[in-house]
Design brief:
This protein is an alpha/beta fold. The protein folds into 2 domains: 13-66; 77-347, P-loop containing nucleotide triphosphate hydrolases (Rossmann fold, 3-Layer(aba) Sandwich), CATH 3.40.50. The protein has helices at residues 8-43, 48-69, 93-107, 125-137, 173-186, 205-210, 224-229, 241-253, 264-274, 276-279, 282-288, 305-311, 315-336, and strands spanning 82-86, 110-113, 144-148, 165-170, 255-260, 339-340, 346-347. The strands form 2 sheets. Strands 2-3-1-4-5 form a 5-stranded parallel β-sheet. The two termini are 51 Å apart.
Length: 366
């Protein structure tokens, strides 16, 4: 006979072989389906690895935000831990500095006042070198905010690989001069009992201008330009056009931010958004603690229009005003890129960028 029935032993063997073949076929088909699905995902740009990285990034950003709110963010020392505020006198610098002193313990940074002998605005080249070395090597005082009435110091000039962050405030030149004129006669509400060097002189600024006295000489306005220009002798040469251009260049390339006294609240808001290590919580503190007008000059009188017209004829007023208006233009551009609240103050809109199209692609495992 051509056909014989299989015995029970052979039947079980054949059944096992058939079952194995069915299993292998099913497994292979499943793998092909998975391969097609992943290929389609790759072709459509929906990469599993990218989605995973995006989720991890969002989670990390959220974690940073929560840590910042709780003031538990831990940082390693870096060159950005050095902030220098070379304060121009009579620009509301005391108000800003006192906010920093109030926040330093909470935010975990140090504040140090640079006191130069004789209250001069420039250092010898040897003292500049010492200052650069001290600031960059004093690890125990990092993060550190250094402030003082001193001209811009170029750290790179001294071979330092660390370049601190510079900030400053400017004020309308004539307003600053008038404030200083009355300050040295009548003092201010910050230290009302301190006798100033012109104490007892009751001549008004208008009278001073009419009599062409030295204290109201327009050349006394030459201060904001040299503060941003630096320590070169040309910077302190009254009316030097190169000094004005150098001050502008430094404002653009060496200063993180230069604000104006008339917009002090916005300046604080931008600092908090940009430098949270130092200024986290500054806006709320600035509002609640009434630091906006911490130091007011006593008995300051507004000048007459005749006095204003006379001062504005000066080349120095025009040059200092040019720098001031240049600073405003830059600061306004910074503000335009931020949000604006109902109270009119600028605020940080949060991270407005993300990462995508990441290469090389992470291998997809089956």
């Amino acid at each position: 006979m051509l056909f014989r029935p299989l015995n029970s032993g052979n039947g079980l063997f054949v059944f096992a072989v058939v079952l194995l073949l069915v299993f292998i076929g099913t497994f292979v088909q499943f793998k092909f389906v998975r391969l097609e699905e992943n290929t389609a995902a790759l072709d459509g740009g929906k990469i599993v690895s990218e989605a995973k990285i995006a989720r991890l990034q969002n989670a990390y950003n959220n974690q940073l935000a929560e840590e910042a709110k709780g003031h538990t963010l831990k940082r390693k020392a870096s060159q950005n831990d050095i902030l220098i505020y070379n304060r121009v006198p009579k620009t509301a610098s005391t108000s800003l500095v006192n906010v920093a002193y109030d926040l330093c313990k909470r935010n975990g940074f140090n504040v140090l006042h640079l006191n130069i002998t004789g209250n001069i605005r420039v250092m010898s080249i040897a003292d500049q070198a010492r200052f650069v070395h001290n600031v960059t090597h004093w690890e125990a005082k990092k993060p550190g905010l250094y402030h003082g009435h001193v001209a811009f110091i170029d750290f790179e000039k001294f071979g330092s690989s660390q370049r601190p962050i510079y900030i400053n405030l400017l004020r309308k030149p004539l307003d600053r001069l008038i404030s200083y004129y009355y300050f040295i006669r009548f003092g201010d509400n910050y230290r009302p009992h301190l006798i100033r060097r012109k104490h007892g002189d009751k001549m008004t600024f208008d009278e001073c201008v009419k009599k062409k006295q030295p204290d109201c000489n327009p050349e006394n306005m030459w201060l904001q330009i040299p503060f941003l220009c630096g320590h070169m002798p040309e910077c302190w040469e009254v009316g030097n056009n190169w000094a004005l251009e150098e001050a502008k260049k430094n404002l653009l390339t060496r200063y993180l931010l230069v604000g104006v006294t008339e917009q002090l609240s916005d300046f604080v808001a931008v600092l908090e958004a940009t430098l949270p290590t130092f200024f986290r919580g500054a806006v709320q503190h600035f509002k609640s603690s009434k630091k906006a007008h911490l130091r007011r000059t006593n008995q300051k009188l507004e000048p007459s229009q005749e006095t204003i017209d006379e001062i504005q004829k000066s080349k120095i007023w025009k040059m200092e005003t040019e720098l001031y208006e240049f600073a405003i233009a830059q600061f306004e551009d910074v503000k335009r890129r931020m949000g604006k609240g109902k109270d009119g103050l600028v605020y940080d809109k949060g991270q407005q960028f993300m990462y995508e199209k990441i290469s090389p692609k992470q291998a997809v495992s089956f």
